[in-house]
Amino acid sequence: MSEILTYLGKDEEYEVYELFFGPNHPGMSGNFSYILTVDGHTIKKVSPDPGLLHRGFEKLVERRLWLQNIALIPRICVPEPDINEMVYSTAIEKLCHIDVPLRASYIRTIVLEMARLSAFLFGFGGIGGTTGLYTASYWSISDRDYLLDLFEWLTGARVYHMYILPGGVRRDLPNGWTEKLKETIDYLQKRLNEYDRLIYNNPLVIKRLKGLGKIEKELAIEYGITGPNLKATGVKYDIRKMVPYAAYDKIDFDIPSQNEGDGLARAIQRREEFQLSLDIIRKALKDIPDGPVRANMPNPLKFKVPKGEVYVKIESARGEHAYYIVSDGGDKPYRMAVRGGSYTAGLILAQKVLVGCRIEDVALWMATMDICPPDFDR
Amino acid sequence: MNQKELIEYIKNNFKGIENIKSIDEKQFSITVQKERIINILSFLKLSNFKELALITAVDWIKEEKIEVVYILFSYEYEQQLIVKTYIDRQEPSIESIKNLWEIATMYERDVHEFFGIDFIGNDDKRPLILHNWKDIPPLRKDFDSLKYSNTIFGKFKKDKE
Amino acid sequence: MELYSTKKLKDEGFEQILNFFRKKSLWMLHYCTGCGAVELPPTMTSRWDMERFGMGPMATPRQADLLLITGYLSLKSLKRVIYTYEQMQNPKWVIALGSCPINGGIYYDSYSVINRLALYIPVDLSIEGCMPRPEAIIEGFIKLMKQIENGEAVGYKKYQENYKWYKQNQDSVLKREFPVLSGEEK
Question: Does residue A316 form part of some domain?
Fold first, then answer.
């Protein structure tokens, strides 16, 4: 393992060591590192060390045309790339006042929910992997492949789709795709019972997760925690419901929430949201209207966005994923700031919550918070 | 309160707002002077804008200004609020708001690294994301990314046979 | 068999036989350096099942044979990758996944991402694509196995022989004392 122990000398009571947790650690989700100061097994201090995945997106988008950036930005968040396209397209539509055809909105909803499902399946695997239940990751990763196959059929790519464009989506649903999607949804519904038996009713998982990294409601709001992690503390707030985008305002759904705010509540919240995503896709498939899938757009090479600024946020599997976009009326974005869903959780909350935990809890805590380093490294 | 009432409320209760503008039905922006930034943010925090979503900056090179942007959110009114202020580009500095929001420490450290803005009162200026950075801060507009990349990483360097 | 003739054995020692066995048990280091790592779990798990080739993930660099560079490498990661590579025992191999380690890919103009990995550590095999599909990754593995058997994958020897050259390149990006643009250093 890459951990290097540095002896920091004797404190009054304890012998204190510095432990490099990650980047090359099997429990680490992605390329990221915490420097832990430990006394025996108990953590005394946490300092995050991000930047290992820094690519400078905020600079790169300023060098490319508005529509060229569609190819670049999905790479900001790897497990759930479609949210980036959605935020970016919505921002351009808001600045240019473009109306999206209704069918395109429904297709966007379906694609976003599919991306959510695949991100949650990754999350299930993460909880399984960090508790030693490797079966869970073997199941969920191969279930995720059914969704990726559908994505491939629809967009031509498994991971980075570049499907949602300003003004609509790239192309209509292929023949027979919706039937296959329905089959997959039914299959995943059936599998969810199996996951319940494997993970959520498993005494071992419950024992490990109960009380892990408990967050209070006020602290969560103060620290900017969003998404499923916030809902697990009891705040019933969902961007899909409150500031609807795509076709979420036309679909009727209820937001699940938990009260405890600990690791178990977060895991169960993700399981409930998995169910919610399945329901939303079913409803969207039932209501989807006919019509065009793209609004008329000007020539991409001469495409200019009027002057202005806008902050667009959407609900990703790990919280509020948002861009602050400024245009000076030119053919390139003047400034784009990225607010990743796990920025505050991974970099700031960790310093507070992980103190007093044991070393083996760090990886599990990261799995329950669903921390994704690429979106805060940018 | 809806957005209109909220704008009225802020206008009536806080003096010194330069500009207040609605962006869409769920968000609006406020421009204030640099000296009043702590006042307005603490006022807004007391008026239920409890979540600090992001601190960032925009480099307006032609105007010789840097715009510092604070994005707040209120769970009560469900309104997004963008608070902006302009500072000098040559010696950019502004008061830190780490006493209002603890998480601002990390955001300010981030903005300091990428824009070179000095947040007075926030001493945490250790590099966060970049490795061994010696040039001008990378998100300044006069920093040329392609030239940097070609110089340091070598466009046509040969492999060892 | 020509391949294992006594003359060859005398000339090259037991290298040939060793290589035959080495290719059958490759342990891959569990280190996700970039976004290509998202296609590794499907490669490892039930659908593509890497284990049928005798490959598996390994947590520690000291017992791993194979270092996968999954996509772009930022400067900060490059430092860790070099540490990790030097910790690994000989023989060791490096596979670079995706377009970014070849020429920078979509990040060719980024200030943080290196353009060509082969300048800093020897790369035995590059798999192109953004990102490579699991089939492509597996084909790459099979190709590497063939290279190992034929004794062609000798990146680690190259690294020992040309250590100075590699070290110089590494230092030129990692240990700078002057600004890159408009710096005093030329």
Answer: yes
End-to-end CA distance of chain B, in Å?
A: 70
Range of A122's domain? 57-344
On the question of pLDDT at A3 being above 50, the answer is no
Question: For residue A349, what are its two tokens?
Answer: 């909350």
Structural domain total, chain A:
1
Q: Return the closest-CA partner of residue A31 out of C35, C141, C178, C11.
A: C35
Q: Which residue matches tokens 């801060």?
A: B137
What distance in Å separates the CA atoms of residue B28 and residue B44, rounded to the nearest whole number? 13
What are φ and ψ of residue B60, in 5° steps? -95, 95
Q: What is the pTM of this model?
A: 0.88
Q: Stretch A183-205: mean pLDDT, rounded? A: 88
Residues forming a β-bridge with B56: B69
Pairing of strands C66-70, C93-97: parallel
Q: Are C145 and C53 in contact (CB under 8 A)?
A: yes
Report d(CA A178, CA A171) in Å as an integer: 14
* CA closest to C37 among chain A residues: A30
* A291 contacts A101 by C-beta, under 8 angstroms: yes
CB pair distance less than 8 Å for A54 and B130: yes
A8: pLDDT strictly greater than 60: yes
Sequence letter at residue A368: T
Q: What are phi and psi of B30, to 5 degrees?
A: -125, 135
- Give me the residues of B, 16-55, that contact A with CB < 8 A: 23-24, 26-27, 29, 50-54
CA A335, CA A327: separation in Å to the nearest integer? 7
Cβ distance A348 to B27 less than 8 Å, yes or no, reads no
Q: Residue ranges per domain, chain C? A: 16-174
Q: What is the ipTM metric for this complex? A: 0.88
C181: nearest CB among B129, B135, B160: B135
**Residue A11 falls inside a structural domain:** no
Q: Is there a contact between B23 and A324 if contact means CB atoms under 8 Å apart?
A: no
Closest CA to A83 of A210, A239, A272, A229: A239
**CATH for the stretch C16-174:** 3.40.50.12280
- Residue A14: pLDDT over 70: no
First-to-last alpha carbon distance for chain C, in angstroms, is 57
My answer on whether omega of the bond before C131 falls inside 30° of 0, hence cis, is yes
Tally of CA atoms within 13 A in the half-sphere of A267 that contains its CB: 31
Is A142 strand, coil or helix? Answer: helix
| Structure token digits, residue A22 | 């990650």
* Three-state secondary structure call for residue A178: helix
Q: How many CB atoms lie within 10 A of CB B75?
A: 15
Helix residue spans in chain B (DSSP H): 3-13, 37-46, 104-115, 145-153
Chain centroid to CA A31: 16
Judge: A59–B69 Cβ closer than 8 Å, yes or no. no
Q: What percent of chain A has pLDDT over 90?
A: 6
CA atoms within 13 A on the CB side of C33: 29
CA distance B45 to B53: 13
Instruction: Give CA A44 to chain center in angstroms.
Output: 29
3-state DSSP call for residue A337?
strand
Give the CATH number, domain containing residue A188.
1.10.645.10
Name the CATH architecture for the domain at B3-153. Answer: 2-Layer Sandwich (3.30)
